[in-house]
Amino acid sequence: MKIVVLVKEVPDMESKFKIVGDAKIDESQIAFKMNDFDEYAVEAALQLKEKFGGEVVIVSSGPDRVTKEVRQAFAMGADWGIHVSDPQIDEGDNFVVAGALVKAIESLGGVDLVMTGVQAEDDQAALTGVFVADMLNFSHCTNVVKIEVGADQKSLTINRELEGGLNEVLEMATPAVLTIQSGINQPRYPTLPGIMKAKKKRLDLKKAADLGVGAIGEAGSKTKFHKIFFPVSEHKAEIIQGDAKAAAKTLVDKLRNEAKVI
Amino acid sequence: MSLIVDARDQEFCLYEMLNIQELFGTARYGEHSKEMFDMALELSRKITEEEMLPFYAEGDRVGAKLENGNVSVPECYKKIHRLMNDAGLFTMAVSPEAGGQGFPYVIDLAAREYYVFNMGFLLYPEASVGAAHLIEVFGTEEQKRKYMMKMYEGKWGGTMVLTEADAGSDVGNLKAKAVRMPDGTYRITGSKIFISGGDSDLFENIVHPVLARIEGDPSGTPGISIFLVPKYLVNDDGSPGRRNDYSITGIEHKMGLKGSATCSMSFGDNGDCYAELLGEERKGMRIMFQMMNEARIGMGLQGMGTASIAYLHALNYAKERLQGADLMNMQNPEAPRVPIISHPDVRRMLLWMKAHVEGMRALVYLCALAIDRKEAMEGEEAARWHGIMELLVPITKAYCTDMGFRVTELAIQVYGGYGYCQDYPVEQFMRDLKIASLYEGTNGIQALDLVGRKMTQNKGANFMNFLVEMNKTVARYKDRPGLADISRDVQDAINTLADMGMFFARCGKEGKFLVPISNAYPFLNLMGTICLAWLLFWQAGIAEEKLEAILAKNGVGAADKKRVNEFLREHRDGAFYHGKIMTARYYVKHVLPQASAIARSIKSEDLTCLEMLDESFAF
Lengths: 262, 619
Ligand SMILES: Cc1cc2nc3c(=O)[nH]c(=O)nc-3n(C[C@H](O)[C@H](O)[C@H](O)COP(=O)(O)OP(=O)(O)OC[C@H]3O[C@@H](n4cnc5c(N)ncnc54)[C@H](O)[C@@H]3O)c2cc1C
Ligand SMILES: Cc1cc2nc3c(=O)[nH]c(=O)nc-3n(C[C@H](O)[C@H](O)[C@H](O)COP(=O)(O)OP(=O)(O)OC[C@H]3O[C@@H](n4cnc5c(N)ncnc54)[C@H](O)[C@@H]3O)c2cc1C
Description:
The complex is a heterodimer.
Chain A: E1 2-6, E2 9-11, E3 19-20, E4 24-25, E5 32-34, H1 36-52, E6 55-61, H2 67-76, E7 80-84, H3 87-90, H4 94-106, E8 113-117, H5 128-136, E9 139-149, E10 155-161, E11 167-173, E12 176-180, H6 192-198, E13 203-206, H7 208-211, H8 217-220, H9 244-258
Parallel strand pairs in A: 1-6, 1-8, 6-7, 7-13, 8-12, 9-12
Antiparallel strand pairs in A: 2-5, 3-4, 9-10, 10-11
Helix pairs in contact in A: 2-6, 4-5
Chain B: H1 7-17, H2 34-52, H3 56-62, E1 65-67, E2 70-72, H4 76-87, H5 105-115, H6 119-138, H7 141-152, E3 156-158, E4 177-180, E5 186-196, E6 205-214, E7 224-230, E8 232-234, E9 240-243, E10 246-251, E11 262-267, E12 274-277, H8 284-290, H9 292-320, E13 322-325, E14 337-339, H10 344-376, H11 380-415, H12 426-433, H13 443-454, H14 461-477, H15 484-509, H16 514-518, H17 520-553, H18 561-570, H19 572-590, H20 593-603, H21 608-611
Parallel strand pairs in B: 3-6, 4-6
Antiparallel strand pairs in B: 1-2, 4-5, 5-11, 5-12, 6-7, 7-12, 8-9, 10-11, 13-14
Helix pairs in contact in B: 1-10, 2-5, 5-9, 5-10, 6-7, 9-10, 9-11, 9-12, 10-11, 10-17, 10-19, 11-12, 11-13, 11-14, 11-17, 13-17, 14-15, 14-17, 15-17, 15-20, 17-19, 17-20, 18-19
The structure holds flavin-adenine dinucleotide (2 copies).
């Protein structure tokens, strides 16, 4: 099977976030790491490769530093990768990034599966996977917690996680896009021999122009960014004391007349 | 933030201070890169935090068990052993030809710094790799094929069997006996004690390097040979043969390190304990000596690494624990409770810990790098640093284990009453670390090695070179605006050390050898303190230059203290460099003065401790 895993680099959430001019986070003060959900996707892909053979290709879009995360996936066992590196793509929204990733995937000339995390830990948009599926015209499944591949290596039986502990079981066919939910597996640790090999694995660098990505930057985006801010927590709480019946009455009264929400 | 190792300080030490990147220019490490090392260290961090730390207490509470002559390790050790072994961590610095990963020793230590606090577990794989290394260097091709490969693969274990009841510090007094058989193999008899991992259920087979005396060989250390004693004899096709004739007669009940089985072993009760000679006859001690530097630097790492995890835990606790009001608000009972890191006495403890941890880190890495340089590079510079390393090894072993222990003790103090309780990990850090001042040559023996051997080794040139290097560092940074005053203190201390060197030489000439001998341990402390002051000052010099550049780049005038502090609070690297300067300043102002007090006491030539009668100690 030929499997592509889309990997995103996200800030380590323990970093100090400083907003500059309502618009950006000061990235110089931040440590980055691989999106956890993508790590599950890498592991799921490696397990399929171990079973059915083929190759696992990592595709990631972002500045130079994302090569660190790609090499991390190499050290786990992925075969090679494409680094889509163009500031104009980085400036765009998820739609722009998905478009660029699709061009990179298409440059591979036919893949069986595209896997990625259900969402990114930073913006939690959960959009990239489904955008990519739509643009590639592949069927897709989100929130994947179990994958079974038939002997023909084309038919898939997928468990999809729903609210309340339910699973939905779906059958679909390759080529497909799967967005992977946490808990599907336990991602392996890289090994030292894997780390040594990672350095020598092929990593192609592609700019927007190399891939023929048309819509870039703000112009290609479907959303408009307004501002970024820390939500203010207003410690406003009133505890209504006394007999439950009377307190309930007071509560309803306050909700109706003061807060005007009912 | 990791609660085990300050990765930023580690990076600073390796790349900004010691310039380990120069190894990338050598033939041996030409394929290596910082990115690769970063990944390796990240792997070590992750595996330790996720798989080891959560089971640290369990290993202690369950402990190793001896039943029917067989040792079982805490069950939780088995998974972590498999994971770390599969990742190749235990053989990180082993040469690729022998099946290892071929990393420089200094990076191996940096990776080990994450998990070295858990020696109760780690002794099993580390002793195994150590024993395999002995076979790699001194074994025959057949022994390598038969034993070494499986040991490096982590399938078989290994130990180090020296100590007997009457041969602890005085190994030369050992009584274990070897008899030569017509086929060239040997049969061993004797009893050994305190053998770490003498048995375990982690491995299919265990190979024991055992020190013993061949029948008829002279007494003392010159008559000692070293033998390989496998638990199961190995058939020609590699399959395990009969169980060898030795038994585990007991395991110790210890203060810490409880997961590690410290075994008493009885060899040859039925007269049939098979053994093979390793290397040549009567070269046992020489063989052990060749492993000494790495083994002792490894002990220094245990002290430093355990201190590091204890310090970071205490720091984290001090930021969260609310107790008491701010000093400026003490009179007001309604004043808000503050985190204890606000209290001057707690800050003092934290800074003391930070300074020692970071100074020791630099010392341990400096020694490790000297070994790498000697192996990877030619020339006078590498040889000179190797000599300085030889001088510093007893200090690295003894000073880092003793000061590391004090750091763990202070961590308990910062935790208050909670630190004394097993719900928190700091008391275990302290218990597990105490052993490090005892094994691998007690710290008292290290001090004698320093005074009796290392100070005069290479005709005293190592010591002179060490002084030269320290003086060079002071000369380089003494005119920096923020460092002028502490540079004078460091220079004074170096002069004190040089003076002590001459004083000891004079004592030797005048036949007053009892003065250096009975003051060996205080002298080791004096030299360790000055050594750490030098290293921290060196770091402050680098940090001052970098901080100056950062402030200039961001248009912050250094004169406006308030503005500078505001800026540093928001600037990660800036705050880090500021911390390095403060740490050096604290150490030089508050710890270094002890060195001159020690010098004064030694130079008094007072020998009360020898003149005291044994009969007068207690009644
Ligand atoms: C948990 C644990 C694990 C161990 N693991 C191993 C192992 O795997 N293999 C192994 O072979 N051994 C092992 N040992 C043994 C260890 O190396 C010895 O305990 C150590 O060498 C000290 O010997 P001793 O205990 O007999 O103390 P002693 O030699 O009796 O020393 C007692 C005190 O006297 C001092 N002293 C002794 N002689 C002198 C002298 N000449 N001058 C000045 N001071 C002196 C010492 O510094 C010490 O303070 C282990 C010990 C322990 C506790
Ligand atoms: C085994 C044991 C037995 C005990 N027995 C009893 C008992 O019988 N009866 C009883 O009432 N209590 C008892 N205690 C409680 C004991 O007295 C407290 O643990 C002790 O007072 C410290 O308080 P704490 O643990 O809350 O530490 P904290 O007060 O949180 O102190 C933590 C650290 O902060 C420092 N610190 C705190 N405030 C300041 C300040 N203002 N300035 C500078 N430094 C500060 C402390 O010195 C310490 O290093 C016992 C505790 C233990 C562990």
